[in-house]
Design goal:
Elements lengths: L1 H10 L2 H11 L14 H7 L3 H9 L14 H7 L3 H9 L10 H7 L3 H9 L14 H7 L3 H9 L7 E2 L2 E2 H7 L2
Antiparallel strand pairs: 1-2
């Protein structure tokens, strides 16, 4: 284990080396700030794959959420960095329980991440607290690529978007 940390410190960028040194010295990897965020959630929000790797390798909880319900997966998607989102999905973040991950990727037009999430098992018909589904967000945002992918994965095309159906919304907004 010491050899792995030594290799990490020698071959990664400065931030990851500092993170590794602090972990090795006994830093609490699950400590939280005022909003309930862990170091992993913060690293994911910055798209820092090297720091995320160091924290996960040291045992950080991949699905720990802050007081607003944001998980490292949602933060990685919010960073706008494909490599960060792919890394955390590949490390088996809970794509089904990370409420809003797929919806966020659709809204941010991160269609490569949408594909990763769907292939990893993210539920295509999960709705947010306002009843919006990923397909509804794709239609409302004119994101044809995401809409096609979601329809291929059997997203409900008859879900309502406000007072109309998705089809009515598409016709009304042209």
């Amino acid at each position: 284990d010491q050899l792995a940390w030594r290799s990490l410190r020698q071959n990664r960028g400065g931030h990851a080396r500092i993170v590794a040194m602090l972990i090795e010295a006994g830093a609490q990897i699950e400590a939280r700030n005022q909003s309930g965020a862990t170091a992993l959630l913060q690293a994911a929000g910055r798209g820092s794959v090297d720091c995320m790797r160091a924290l996960l390798d040291a045992g950080a909880s991949i699905n720990a959420s802050d007081s607003a319900g944001r998980t490292p997966l949602i933060a990685a998607i919010g960073s706008g960095r494909y490599d960060a989102a792919k890394f955390i999905i590949d490390r088996k973040a809970d794509v089904a329980g990370s409420g809003g991950a797929l919806l966020g990727a659709v809204e941010n037009r991160q269609n490569d991440v949408v594909r990763l999430l769907v292939e990893a098992g993210a539920p295509v018909n999960a709705a947010d607290s306002e009843g919006r589904t990923p397909l509804a967000a794709a239609v409302a945002g004119w994101n044809l690529e995401a809409a096609k992918l979601l329809v291929e994965k059997k997203a409900d095309v008859n879900v309502r978007l406000g007072n109309s159906t998705l089809l009515m919304h598409a016709v009304e907004k042209q």
